[in-house]
Amino acid sequence: MDAARVEGVLSQVIEVSLRPGDYPIETLLDLTSRGLVIRDALNELYRTHLPFIVQDIVPGIEARQLKVLLEGGAGSGVVSAVQDIVTAFCSAGYYGRAFPLFDPSKKGAPVEGYGIVSREPILSHAPFETPDMVLLFDPKLFPRLRNQLGRYANADPRGMVILVNTPMTPEEFRAAAGFDDPFLLHTLSAAAILKGKRIPPNYAMIGGMLGILGREAVDPAAFAEVVRVSLTEKFGGGENVEANLRALEEAQGRIMGESPHPYARGLSALGKVSAPAVPEGQVILCEDGNRAIARAIAMVLNLFPSVVAAYPITPQTQIVEWLAKMIADGILSAEGVTPESEHGAGAAVMGAARDRVLAFTATSSQGLALMSENLHSLAGMRMGNVVLSNVVRSLNSPLDVENDHGDLYKVLLDAGFIIMMSRDVQQAADFHLMSYLIGMYAEYRKKNGQLEMIPDKSVMLPTVVASEGFEVSHAPERYVALTDAVVKRFYDDSFFSYVKTFVDTPNLSITGALQLSNSRQDTDYQRHLAMQVAYRVLKEIFARFERYTGRKYDFISSYNVQESDVVFVVAGAANGTFEEVAREFKRHGINVGVAHPNVIRPFPAEEWAQLLKGKKVIVYDRDDAYGAVGGRLYTELAGVVNEHKLAETGTDLFSRIYGLGGRTPSLPFVRDEMHQALASLDGTRELSRSKQYSGVKI
């Protein structure tokens, strides 16, 4: 290396403002040797050098979003406010996702809500890193908020708006709070607008937000109409609805603030969008996963005699609540059964399934474990007319109501069910719509004047559709729902006539769970054959679903795998976060692949073998198979690698355990995991071959 050239480059480098990071002198020498002046050489380094690209990943994602943080006490309307904000923007054509963070404490305890709006699909299921706007519903919580602002030390405070519910002017509030940080402070007196009415300040605060954003960012009249519909659905109309709407409108002109209107940062993230094109018979909604699942499954149950039997448990309770409400309101024709426990729910579903109706239940965590005795019987007795919605959650002990995949993997994976895994609200709704068509597939023949199933041409296995607890179940997002008419046309397809045949054919058999031991291996082998039939049938169901809806599914969802040397396999909601980061790397010219298992049972080994051939594959399991060489997805894929001799093609497999007990993987976490994998491609870093725990804090 020429010492004189090095000295010359370094003398120029120290004269300019630099980003934090390591500067490879060899690369700078090469860039300057091409005739680039030092500033251009540094910009090229920032654009192409992986460590600097990594610094830009999360800011690049969030720059295209409007991110709103709401803080208040329990009962102040924070949860409904963040949901209504996102719903209104989705109705106007934007993409949105809300993350209401519930607190189990008494009324008045701090509650947070995160709302994200963008012109682009929002794939991440993690809260954002830096808000653009903060709505503080209760000024007494300002000390708490002030401490939180320290988390955003790397952000420019002059680009962040804070709206405080107080009668003080911004200047008075700053003086009273001793707050001189250069955030864009606004105040609004919700009490003066509500004039003593016993309603929470949420819609006044939303109105203040709209006033700050300005009419160029959002149409207040359209927004108000969405709020009217939402409130009317909740309260049935009346003076409370009208009072909230007046507060929403009046607050837009009552804000006192330090930034020009409209808010430039909000406009740059939003801009104008056109109304999205929606296929006939479909409608854009903004709902959480539990509501979407209840909506979807109800449309199917209404087509046939059906029974719903379930016991409430967090985080699936709202599914059962919605279905119970539909039954009470006469919207759902199913028979509702209220059992005394999840074990009782499993028994009720078993009894209903014996009488050839469509049976449905939903559960999570310890409820699933309590139901397990009946689950194995349901599968063993080949009750394909049963669907179970598993909103995944940690298993005890210790007691943890947060989400991971422990209940699905430890209770259900080997119970003999068809298993589908969803990563967002759209998949959760669509997979529930298809679920009965998979498990109930059977071909029939006449024997002695009666119809009977052909054993080796039938599935008749119960189906589980798994969805992420909280990150999907409680987080509203934009998706496209089918109408009843489209669902009916879909189920009326002649290929699916086996459902009606099953329901209309009397059950003349006697079914029990007892079997003599000298037959057990044979009937278990029949279940193996049934899984093979399910594998073939799933392809046809996916194809016909696409024909009716325009949405294409397969055993695996993947992004950018063919172009990438490194692939991340992630199940559930975190898959969207991984894809969000991978897409941002792609914007910088770096290929990272991401894959999601839509179907776990039957396990689609052929599809995985084709997808992962010659790749470096990091498998992230949101459950720990204690003492095993890796997580469950990892060991499944290790079997595929062995069976298909993929090691000979260069396929390399790594096991990672992450996200246990609701430790949601953040954008920076995913970015750093991808950085390590990318750095391993050129030997800069080495990935451990043993099972690793990503994100452990001890």
From TrEMBL:
The keyword Oxidoreductase appears for this protein: yes
Family from the record: Belongs to the pyruvate:ferredoxin/flavodoxin oxidoreductase family.
GO BP: response to oxidative stress
Species of the source: candidate division WOR-1 bacterium RIFCSPHIGHO2_01_FULL_53_15
Taxon lineage: Bacteria, Bacillati, Saganbacteria
Stated name of the protein: Pyruvate ferredoxin oxidoreductase
PANTHER family (alphabetical): PYRUVATE-FLAVODOXIN OXIDOREDUCTASE-RELATED (PTHR32154)
GO MF terms held by the record: oxidoreductase activity, acting on the aldehyde or oxo group of donors
Limits of the Pyruvate:ferredoxin oxidoreductase core domain: 565-666
Ranges for domain Pyruvate/ketoisovalerate oxidoreductase catalytic: 74-251
Top-rank taxon: Bacteria
Keyword set includes Cytoplasm: no
Residues spanning the signal sequence: none
Alphabetical UniProt keywords: Oxidoreductase
SUPFAM superfamilies per record: Pyruvate-ferredoxin oxidoreductase, PFOR, domain III, Thiamin diphosphate-binding fold (THDP-binding), TK C-terminal domain-like
InterPro entries hit by this protein: PFOR_II (IPR033412), Pyruvate:ferred/Flavod_OxRd (IPR050722), Pyrv/ketoisovalerate_OxRed_cat (IPR019752), Pyrv_Fd/Flavodoxin_OxRdtase_N (IPR002880), Pyrv_flavodox_OxRed_cen (IPR002869), THDP-binding (IPR029061), Transketo_C/PFOR_II (IPR009014)
Domain Pyruvate flavodoxin/ferredoxin oxidoreductase pyrimidine binding positions: 305-539
